[in-house]
């Protein structure tokens, strides 16, 4: 079921329904008709650089050479992981559309890249209309929020695979001027400050452990409202969309802040994500006691009896992104982040070292 | 398990093994160590435009403005579908790595785009070393064959999803000069000739129907050697890698052939894929009697008692790509394709019409 997002406008008039294929479990017509209903929504994400009319094979995006002098394409791909299983349990799918987009935007924004275009992939054993429509709606809305074109995609119905599950994958491309790439290994030195931007919860990482602790060990369900979550259901708290930090980065760059390095805190937490951008002779020290850890993490830790170190090794623990800035830029950075709608606080510093991360737990 | 392809070179020295996470079914260390062994292989695909050292978040690819005057990025994504289940049954995974790359290259090559970089995604319930290594080896080899960089990727281990299966998705980006985009809707007129390039078999489409006909209805297994396949096993014939047609397109473009339109014959066959590139007032007529249909298609048709029309609606039936050229270019095109290592033949023509496809069956 190839490129059906693009096949809507075409399709031979002589081609009837594929009955044998349908009996084999693949319903091309459903995908085409669902997509047709979403066309208007998707077209709202179209930027002027887009050339391809819906109907071709590949999406086309022109590089605007009036704007970009030495354009570098920054590319990343990711999935939503087993957060999808929580979406399934809840029967709510829009938020995972936001998750995949926002996660991918963050992954390239750390290098200073402006999001340009996005493609999605949905794999499933049997295509469900509600899931498909909600995921695509969330995806398109999230793309629009970041001024990014949803330029293509693929939905694959694979009978006999996936069972009742589905997978959702995104691939993002952004653009950055070559001399403006944010490169921590080059610019981070000892004596700089780590500013943390708060997360919306788990984002899209650590769900296998979270499900085990909350559901298996803790006996909760997505509908449970444990006291710790203040009236919210476990499912709703878990599904809170991945926060996108691009607008904070944009605001800081526009104001001339020296963003020496940026780390997206995903699976692996501070321990795995921060060393990626540190130079060999610098280490980072975080004071996690200043972080207002969201209640969902405490609940996971308690019900699963997870070691505190382990928690910081798997989850973001309330900080979804870290900026490394010179001391002189700290106050302005905090203000700019706040102005862009984010909560930010000083969470650590860089010291002479060997590219390791230490957390005061 | 984020971006572990890129995380190999980093990782905090203080970070120990994630025991709780491992118990929850996610083995980060295995993925990292497997990837480490594949680094050399992957690095062979590195083009000079690549900026990112292994270790960052997003892969970086510089647009060479000495070479490209008005660069347009052409983007496509696809999966391998249930061909993966045949790979599983055979325990052979290298060929599907070639499949995903070659399929994606064809999807952008039809617009005249030169492959530039590729990202892969592997989703699985439990990461298997053999599968991972073979898939990545096939992927990297196929990228190298097309002078394309394997610039990034993601492997997601999702316990409780996928069962024993896995999914494989690719996203490709190529580059084309804006004034050299191949646009059938603009350039195809009545009276042109359709040249078909032979396929290697099913490529990556129609596997759900094929599996039903061969295995369920026909009672065969992947190890069966039915007389029709001349001594080969069903599994080996089914796994024949998707043929990549870029080198034929390149040869024709370099020789100044008027490639007015190109269609990649994937799921939907001639009926669905050709109309995508036809102008509103042109139809295409194919004489399928000239096609030497590979025995595997005949076997599927026979065992599943599939209507001939249906066969051409689902499968490529032996023709994986169609070029539309002016009559005067036919002989040269056939010769160039042959010179580039492809079998090509005249399979049809364009007539005045209404964007429909008719096949003389």
Defining key terms:
homodimer; 361 residues; alpha+beta; 60s Ribosomal Protein L30, Chain: A; Phosphoribosyl-aminoimidazole Synthetase, Chain A, domain 2; 2 domains; six-stranded mixed β-sheet; 35% helix; disordered N terminus
For CATH, the homologous superfamily of the largest domain in chain A is named as PurM-like, N-terminal domain
Give the helix/strand class of chain A: alpha+beta
Poorly predicted regions of chain A: 1-17
User: What is the level 1 CATH name of the largest domain in chain A?
Assistant: Alpha Beta
Query: What is the percentage of strand-forming residues of chain A?
Result: 15-25%
Major interchain interface with per-chain residue totals: A-B, 105 and 105 residues
User: What is the CATH topology assignment of the largest domain in chain A?
Assistant: 60s Ribosomal Protein L30, Chain: A
CATH architecture label name of the largest domain in chain A: 2-Layer Sandwich
Number of helices of chain A: 14
Reading the helices and strands of chain A in chain order gives: HHHEEHHEHEEHEHHHEHEHHEHEE
Number of strands of chain A: 11
**Number of discrete domains of chain A:** 2
The spatial strand order of the largest sheet of chain A comes to: 7-9-6-10-8-11
The average pLDDT score of chain A comes to 91
């Amino acid at each position: 079921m190839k490129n059906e997002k693009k096949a809507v406008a075409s399709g031979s008039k002589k081609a009837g329904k594929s009955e044998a294929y349908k009996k084999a479990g693949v319903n091309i017509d459903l995908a085409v008709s669902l997509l047709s209903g979403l066309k208007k929504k998707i077209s709202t994400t179209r930027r002027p650089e887009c050339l391809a009319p819906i109907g071709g094979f590949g999406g086309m995006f022109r590089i605007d050479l009036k704007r970009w002098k030495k354009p570098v394409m920054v590319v990343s791909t990711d999935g939503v992981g087993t957060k999808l299983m929580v979406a399934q349990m809840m029967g709510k799918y829009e938020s995972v559309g936001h998750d995949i987009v926002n996660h991918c935007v963050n992954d390239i924004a750390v290098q200073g890249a402006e999001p340009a275009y996005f493609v999605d992939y949905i794999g499933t054993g049997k295509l469900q209309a509600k899931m498909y429509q909600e995921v695509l709606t969330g995806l398109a809305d999230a793309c629009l929020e970041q001024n990014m074109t949803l330029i293509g995609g693929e939905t694959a119905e694979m009978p006999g695979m996936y069972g009742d599950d589905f997978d959702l994958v995104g691939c993002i491309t952004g653009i950055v001027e070559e001399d403006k790439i944010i490169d921590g290994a080059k610019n981070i030195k000892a004596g700089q400050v780590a500013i943390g931007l708060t997360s919306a919860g788990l984002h899209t990482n650590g769900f296998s452990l979270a499900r085990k602790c909350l559901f298996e060990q803790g006996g909760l369900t997505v509908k449970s409202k444990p006291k710790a979550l203040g009236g919210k259901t476990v499912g709703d708290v878990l599904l809170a969309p991945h926060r996108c930090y691009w607008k904070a980065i944009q605001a800081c760059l526009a104001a001339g802040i020296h963003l020496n390095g940026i780390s997206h805190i995903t699976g692996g937490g501070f321990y795995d994500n921060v060393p990626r951008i540190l130079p060999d002779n610098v280490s980072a020290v975080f004071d996690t006691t200043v972080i207002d850890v969201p209640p969902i993490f405490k609940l996971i830790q308690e019900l699963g009896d997870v070691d505190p170190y382990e928690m910081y090794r798997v989850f973001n623990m309330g900080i979804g992104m870290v900026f490394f800035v010179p001391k002189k830029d700290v106050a302005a950075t905090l203000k700019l982040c706040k102005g862009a709608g984010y909560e930010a606080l000083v969470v650590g510093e860089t010291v002479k070292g060997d590219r390791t991360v230490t957390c005061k737990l």
